Amino acid sequence: MSDAPALSETSASRPSRRRRAAPRLALLAGTGTALLALALLGPEVFDRFTINVLTRSMIYAMLAITVDLLWGFAGVLTFGQAAFFGVGAYATAMILTHVGSSPALLALALVAAVLIPAAMGWLVGWMSFYHGSTAFYATVISLLVPIVVTQLIYAGGATTGSSSGLVGYWGMDLSLDGYFRLAGVCLAAMTVAALVFVKSDAGRVLTAIRDNELRCAYLGLSPQRIKIRLTAALGAAAGFAGWLYANASGVVAPEISSFVFGTELVVWTALGGRATVLGPVLGALGIDWLSASLSGEMPFLWQLVIGALFVAMIIVLPNGLAALVTRGFGRRGGDPAMGAAPPLVEAPPAAEPGAAPLSDLSAPLLAVRDLSKSYGAHKVLQGIDLEIRPGELVSLVGPNGAGKTTLMRCLTDGDARSGGEAEIAGRSIDGLTPDRIVALGVGRKFQVASVFESLTVAECLRMARVSIDRPSPWASAETLALPAAAIEILRLTGLDRMLGAPVSLLSHGQKQSLELAMVVCLEPRLILLDEPTAGLTKTERATIGAVLRKLTAELGCAAILVEHDLDFVRDISSRIVVLHQGRLVLDGTVEAVVNSDTVREIYSGGGHA
């Protein structure tokens, strides 16, 4: 279960906070202490062969952490970190070989080893995560990058040493023990920093993207931009590891940037324990050291032995090596399904969204003109004209297949419609991505509850505030600050008592309520709701209806509601719009539409509202 901020709502439960925080602090302290002890005491214990191998293994472990952050936490399977590592190592070796090895040039090599892979990472990220790309496409790009880098090294002639690599240059003036200690300290620092980050509010954003990228976009985040920045940052980290490797080894060869090495990093991460940070460290240290040891003692059988151990480990430890270490830091006592819950506090009103504030409340908040949507020759929507003003709650009804959900999609994605115009507060949404439309003050609830299954209720709600309240990269907020309307939804549906519960344990109706609360957390001016009461009890529907009436009548929001419950629609709507066969056939008051002969004719044909 994901870690929730360790605060409770009452003073009586504050000891729970301390109990919940203790395992996290113990894990951080234990990890940092163990790695520092290895770095400082290793030369006093190990022979020179082991010191030499473990120095390399610790550098590889730093690289494996970057793979885990991308794959384990952000959900981006990558084979390309070896390329960034190789570029950093070669940038260092080329400067030290062809220019010199003074302290100033060592510093220059460090800058080059970090900045060049960072720029390369930004370019790779841009190619991998442009709007509309798929996870498979990004993985293919990561497969190609190390192949291209390796071929450039082969083609570099004397500059890169071609297939022989570069050797014989001078790096930092450190002994074998000194490099061992330096690599160990760097690994300890990177491991603790990564653990702190992934447990922070900013780190939870990566998990949210891995779980549900679409929902992130409709919470005002840009998964593409986040993944591009992450790729660039981790490219820089891999380049730093390459700089350290080039100094410590005194030789660089094309193999360190190859696809094969990139695959090894993924295997080490998987066997160590994906999405644990500590697992990839254990995987890289243990497997690389074991491979080096067995290859000397069993030159013809070591790969068979390693393969057999891999299979045994997958069977015995399906969660990886990290499970052996972290098992003792799990929750002790209490309900294992319920984490500590942060106290709810009311957030101050957010600044006005990206669109200009409306001075005339009679002016349309949403204006749609001649909107159409086609899939090839099949026309789903055609000739849709619609205006929604602040304070209106407009219900969109029609038979199944009338195009209601498609219309919702066309209003929240600037590239979704085939023709026509759509404006939010006078600004065209043409070509805008969902996160930019959310910034105009639009919130969307999906037909099927779209939440984050790996997070807790409180963490999901905090994700809904990320576009408004910048999350910390090193801490979790001690309180959960939400708008009053969102808090009211939580209290009326009982979710305020389940803030520490994993979302995966919620019922269908509870997930529906949670998603609605997440949308309201955005403080939108226009809310698009696709069957918000599906799966709720009669009492819960009345509660949601009261909240929607308050949002529109008292707070001046506008809402478009797709709903199958005509009684619910009749009770809360200010207008009803009827879609039939992709066309808007009625737009009027509740009574006028409900009593219309056209509506009776439409539904007598077997459709359902």
UniProtKB/TrEMBL annotation:
InterPro entries: AAA+_ATPase (IPR003593), ABC_AA/LPS_Transport (IPR051120), ABC_transp_permease (IPR001851), ABC_transporter-like_ATP-bd (IPR003439), LivM-like (IPR043428), P-loop_NTPase (IPR027417). It is a multi-pass membrane protein. Pfam families: ABC_tran, BPD_transp_2. It comes from the Bacteria. GO terms for molecular function: ATP binding; ATP hydrolysis activity; branched-chain amino acid transmembrane transporter activity. The chain crosses the membrane at residues 25-46, 58-77, 82-99, 105-124, 136-158, 178-198, 228-246, 300-325. Keywords: ATP-binding, Cell membrane, Membrane, Nucleotide-binding, Transmembrane, Transmembrane helix, Transport. One of its GO terms (cellular component) is plasma membrane. It is found in: Cell membrane. Residues 366-606 form the ABC transporter domain. Signal peptide: none annotated. PANTHER family: CONSERVED COMPONENT OF ABC TRANSPORTER FOR NATURAL AMINO ACIDS-RELATED. This is Amino acid/amide ABC transporter membrane protein 2, HAAT family /amino acid/amide ABC transporter ATP-binding protein 1, HAAT family. It comes from Albimonas donghaensis.
